[in-house]
Amino acid sequence: MKKFIPLLFLLVLGFSFQSFSQDEIPAYIKEKITYPVLDFHPFIGVMPVEEPALPYNPELDYKVVLDLYGAIKDSTAIHPSILEVARTYNLGVANGVPQEKLHLAAVVHGGLVNAILSDIEYEKKFSIKNPNLLAIEELEKVGVQFYVCGQSMAFLQIGKEKLTPLVHPAISAKYSFVTLGQIGYVYLNVSE
User: Fold this and answer.
1) Fewer C-beta neighbours within 10 Å, C or N terminus of the chain?
2) Which letter, b or e, does each residue of 23-35 get, where b requires 16 or more Cβ atoms within 10 Å of its Cβ?
3) What contacts 15, CB < 8 A, 6 or more positions away?
4) Over its length of 192 residues, how does the chain's per-residue pLDDT go in tens digits?
5) Looking at the domain assignment, is residue 38 inside a domain?
6) How many C-beta neighbours within 10 Å does residue 138 have?
7) Other C-beta atoms lying within 10 Å of the C-beta of residue 164
């Protein structure tokens, strides 16, 4: 039961993040939150948990494919789904997973394709440079691979030349998940 309570706390905390503004962290969190690797945004930090269940297993490679979709609600901020990619990375490292055993892939589809536009194209659409590119660049530096659904690109009439070159077009989001699943990646939806 003692081990369940911290996990329940993290789950509740995860849902609570959505009730704060994107840059506002309550004082009780600020004094405890850590940033094991990535620190470009306040809400990608990790709360420490004493003696967590399911600690790092050196026999495993941790492969996760994250599902990123939705709409841009605030064009001036990094999209919450992209922040969750960074937080997932930090959580892995906080759990003891060495960076060389942590493999994350993110698949962008639907209206969220607008979040991966180049600065020029984003500025045409939203009158501001793309705030998501900083996050994508930092994630790419630690080895996170970004893919985009070619079907979403086609339906939204967004050509490859309009996207950041850090994101790789695939035939579809569906087959990105299928292919990555076949090579050992575990599906994680961070967009709900």
Assistant:
1) N
2) eeeeeebeeebeb
3) none
4) 455 444 444 444 454 444 445 468 899 999 999 999 999 999 999 999 999 999 999 999 999 999 999 999 999 999 999 999 999 999 999 999 999 999 999 999 999 999 999 999 999 999 999 999 999 999 999 999 999 999 999 999 999 999 999 999 999 999 999 999 999 999 999 997
5) no
6) 18
7) 20
Question: What tokens were used for 100?
Answer: 């060389």
Containing domain of residue 81, as a range? 54-189
Q: What residue type is assigned to position 182 of the chain?
A: Q
Is the backbone of residue 143 left (phi > 0), alpha (psi -120 to 50) or beta?
A: left
Q: Report the amino acid identity of residue 44.
A: I
Residue 186 tokens, joined: 């575990």
Whether residue 13 is contained in a domain is answered as: no
Say how far residue 145 (Cα) sits from the centre of its chain. 11
Residue of 37, 191, 46 whose CA lies nearest to 115: 191
**What single-letter DSSP state applies at residue 171?**
S
Structurally, how many domains does the chain consist of? 1
Domain presence at residue 166: yes
Are residues 109 and 81 in contact, defined by beta-carbon separation less than 8 angstroms? no
| Longest CA pairwise span in the chain (Å) | 53
Q: pTM for this structure?
A: 0.86
